[in-house]
Design goal:
This is Acetyl-CoA carboxylase biotin carboxyl carrier protein subunit. The protein is built from 2 helices and 15 strands. 9% of the residues lie in helices and 53% in strands.
Length: 161
């Protein structure tokens, strides 16, 4: 099976390279991060100066010129096209009721600064108390419910700034 890679250099040059072309590359590893490369009868001294595997970005020095490179496999491209990205979190700006219930307690006020996992409010549903916690750090923009109010599923409860 042939694997292809989408390569972007310095956010300018965009091209595809396949596994066969990578295998044909004449390289000699000199150290953990340094390589000697022969290409078209020319010699290149290369060094990987920075590598971020999660973002698939690298800085490579070739004969004293640094290039910033992003390398994505076919699967990475497909995942991104589908709207999913590895390592990227979605910022939640609203808390909605996960089920119908009764607001027993509100632990925050408008303008309150909260941390991730702080308890925002208590929702009673099916005779059980459910603590709704903050999915992220932030500041409370609005509180759309009051203590003692009955809420429907997906009703807006709290918004973040």
């Amino acid at each position: 099976m042939k694997h292809a890679y989408q390569v972007k250099v310095n956010d300018t040059f965009d091209f595809k390279i396949d596994e066969q072309a990578v295998k044909k590359l004449d390289t000699l590893q000199v150290s953990d991060s340094e390589f000697h490369v022969l290409h078209n009868h020319l010699s290149y001294k290369t060094e990987i100066t920075n590598a971020n595997f999660n973002e698939k970005s690298y800085s490579v020095k070739v004969n004293n010129t640094v290039y910033h490179i992003n390398i994505h496999h076919e699967l990475d491209i497909l995942i991104k096209e589908m709207g999913f990205e590895i390592g990227i979190t979605k910022e939640v700006n609203e808390i909605k009721a996960p089920m119908p219930g009764l607001i027993l307690e509100i632990n925050v006020q408008i303008g309150s600064e909260v941390k991730e996992d702080d308890t925002l409010l208590i929702l009673e549903a099916m005779k059980m108390e459910n603590a709704l916690t903050s999915p992220r750090a932030g500041i409370i923009k609005t509180i759309s419910v009051t203590k003692g109010e009955t809420v429907d599923k997906n009703q807006l409860l709290i918004e973040f700034e």
